[in-house]
Amino acid sequence: MIIAYSARGASGFGAAAALPLLGLVLPLKVLVPAWSLIALVAASALLGSDRKRIAWPELRRLIPGTLIGIAVGLYVFTLLDSAMLAKWIGGFVLAYGLYSLWATFRPGGHTHIPPRVAAMLGGIAGGMTGTIVGTMGSTFFAIYFDAIRLNKDNYRATMTAILLTLTLLRGIGYFAVGEFSRDVLIVTAVLFPSMLIGIFIGTRIHHGMNELVFRRTVSCLLIVSGLALLVK
Q: Count of domains in the chain?
């Protein structure tokens, strides 16, 4: 949790890589709602210092696709095996992370994607993945921000804002179906201190990064996230 949330504090995403590991020792029925509560507090804490750096035009571009993705995710969740879907998504994220890392070692390394197209695809995929798998939606938002070359300060703030939106909507759904049980609250309380320590460490790392190191860090986090989904 400390390592995962250090990554979250440094880049705005990456904490989800810890969920598959925690799932080895905790039932997902308890872990996923608890993770949403922790993510809600973490996003609120990060947004407190970063709210002036939010790239509002990019956030507005993501919202419509994210809402569509949540709706599609709720429908698909009832039809498909989420473990198999997670492996397909993990393979894609891993491939993009490797490409993104490779691109940082060559001049002009990124292929241009029209912002509106990238936003719609990133929003739908992020909202759908976050709903079906319970997490990992941030990886697709990261792909969008990476594609438009958002600078690191706006990157973390805008990522935090869209994840807060997604977590709130998902949390309302969990509450509506009575998923916030006593066990969920206990797990949340146990994991909470580690999240705070990670956020503190990650924030200090973030402010000391230059742009190139930041982009390579994001690429590595995409690779880790993809691998985590593949082995989940």
A: 1
Distance (Å, rounded) from C-alpha 210 to C-alpha 208?
7
Angstrom distances, CA of residue 147 to CA of 20, 61, 82, 98, 186: 27, 14, 27, 14, 39
Nearest to 62 by CA among 7, 6, 132, 127: 127
Cα–Cα nearest to 158, from 69, 60, 42, 65: 60
**Which residues, 6+ apart, have CB-to-CB distance to 78 below 8 Å?**
none
Query: Which of 139, 189, 160, 134 has its CA nearest to residue 45?
Result: 160
Computed over every residue of the chain, the mean pLDDT equals: 77
Among the ranges 23-32, 40-49, 100-109, 120-129, which has the highest mean pLDDT value? 120-129
pTM of the predicted structure, to 2 decimals: 0.65
Q: What distance in Å separates the CA atoms of residue 161 and residue 55, rounded to the nearest whole number?
A: 9
**List of residues 6+ apart from 143 with CB closer than 8 A:** 93, 96, 100, 118, 122, 125, 222
The structure tokens listed for 124 are 């739908």
Using one digit for the tens of pLDDT, what is the confidence trace for 98-134? 877 777 776 554 555 677 787 888 888 888 877 776 6
Domain hosting residue 121, numbered range: 2-231
End-to-end CA distance of the chain: 17
**pLDDT the model gives residue 193:** 93
Tokens (6 digits) for 59: 């956030």
Q: Report the C-alpha gap between 23 and 2 in whole angstroms.
A: 16
